[in-house]
Amino acid sequence: MKKLLSVLLLSVFCISGMFAIDFSKFKGEWLDPNWDANWVFGIGTLKLEDAKTGEKIFDFTKYIFSNGKLESTEKNDGISLIFSCPETERTYKFTKLVNLDTSIIMEIDPEWTDENYSVDLKLD
Asked: What pTM value is reported for the model?
């Protein structure tokens, strides 16, 4: 019985690992110069912080893991992390192209308007 339980637990961990989102390409702090804010990607976390004080503005971690996805770009020249946040009423897309540039393209699509926000985030 213990062996069966051990095998079942191991299977669950392996299967759940297959669905985990690996956004290690985005790891670091990326500055939005328009808002003086850092998007801080860590291992299993994404937070928005004030660039001057380091004060947390918002924690997006649970939204990445509840409805986030990784996709290759249309030209297969990079990868995009996309997720929606019901609390902020926006969809976020972070794209890292495969090149020597360290910036990330961030696009925000608010639900209440057709005007989207797009900016190159610089590695801070």
From this structure: 0.78
